[in-house]
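Re: the 463-residue chain
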Amino acid sequence: MIDLTNRRVLVMGLGVHGGGLGVARWLVGQGAVVTVTDLKRAEELQSSLDALRGLSIEYLLGEHREQDFLNTELVVRGPGVPRESPLLRLAQEHGIPVEMEMGLFVERLPRGAAQVVGITGTKGKTTTTLMVGAMLAKANAKTVVAGNLRISALELLDKIDADTPVVLELSSWQLEAFPPHQISPHIAAITNISPDHLNRYRDLDDYAEAKQIIFRYQQAGDFVVLNFDNRILTHLAPRAFSKVVWTSAKRALNEGAYREGDALLWRWGGERHKIMDVHELRVAGAHNVENALAAIAVASVWGATPEQIASALAEFRGVEHRQELVREINGVRYVNDTTATAPAAAIAAIQAFAPSGIVLIAGGSDKALGFAEMARVVVANVRYVILLEGTATDKLAGAIESAGGQGLVAGRYDDLEKSIVRARELAQRGDVVLLSPGCASFGMFANEFERGERFKRIVRGAP
C-alpha cells in the first residue's frame, strides 16, 4: 500500500459525473501533491472545478501530455478513461503504477472487513444497491453505501471499521480496478447482462467478462447472486468458485429468491420465508421485482432477517432519475427516466407504464448498440415518439420505421424544452410523457443527470 504523503499523483479524468472529484479531494487529504489532467476544457468542467475550489491542485486541461505521465509517482485513472490508453501503458512501461479509486479503496479497508457487498449489472444495479443498503441498515446502522452513485468510497473510509457493512454499486469500468489486487467482494451480485457500452468493449463477450470480475477472485466461502432468468448469467455461473445463489421472477427455486404468484419468497437451508407480496412494493414494473429479488438474496446471505428485509422493501420509494414521477399536468404524468442510457433500460420503462398511452422522448449519443428490440417494443406500446438529436438518433429512427412504426415519430429536436412542448401537445389525459432515451446523453448534455435535471426543471416550471 503506497504511502501518499508528499507523493506526486496524477489524476487522469476529472469529468463532470463525480468520478474524479472524490479521488482528488481524498488524495489532497492524504498529503499527496495532486495534478489533474482531462481532455475537457475548463469551461466544460466548471461544476467539478467549483467543487474543488480552494484545494491545492494543479490542473492540466484540454489535453493529455506524455511528460505528465512520466513526471509522477502514481497515476489514478478515472472510470471513464479506457484501460487501453497508450498514456497509461507509457506510465506502466516506466515503472509508474496505475490505480483506480476502487483499487485504492479496497487495499485500505480495515483488516477483517470481509462483509463487503458489490453489485453490478447492465440495469437495476443502482436500485438494487440502495435496496440492499436499506436492508442492511435495518440490521446495522453503520452500513455504508458508495460507488457508482456519485458517492466516493474513498471519502467514506474514515467511517468504516471492521464491523461496518459496505455496499458498493460497481460499473464495469470500476470493476477493472480489481484484477491487479485479485480481489472480489465477499458477496457479489449481477442483476442482469444485456448489450451496453459496446463503444468501449470489443463485443458483448468482452463486456460480460468485465462484469464477471465481480466474482472472479471470490473464494469458497463467498457468495455470488445471479439472475437465473438471464441467459448470459447462466452461462457465466460455472466459472464461479464461490456459492452461486439464484434469483428468478419466473420459476420456483429449490434455493434462492423467487416469485411465486404474487409472493416474493426466500428459500435457503431447508427453510422457506415469504418476504412480501409484489403489490406491496412501492416501485413499479417487472424489472423492479427482479431488483427486489436480487436484494432479498444478497441481504439474506449477508444475515439480515426476513422481517428487516421486508421492512426496508416496504419503505423503498425508488431512485431519482429512474422512472421518477416529476409532475402530473391535466391528467398527464411526466416521468424522468434519464438513466435509461441503453435500449434494455428503455424497454423496461416502456413495459412498466404500458398499457397507458405513452409519448416517448428518446434518442441521443451512440454506444454502438442495436435498437431492433427497443423499436419492436416502442411500436407495440407507444403512441408517439419524439427524438432528441444525437449520433444514435438516425439509427433509432430507422429501427422504428423498420419495425412498422411509420408515422410514429412526431418530431425531432435539438432543444429539450421544445421536445417537451411537443409531447404536451400530443399527450391526452391518462397518458405518460416518458423521458427514457435508450441512448447516452453526450452532445446535447454533459451527462444523463443534467438531462434529467433539465427535464424536471422544465416540467415543474410549465403552467
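The chain has a mean pLDDT of 94.
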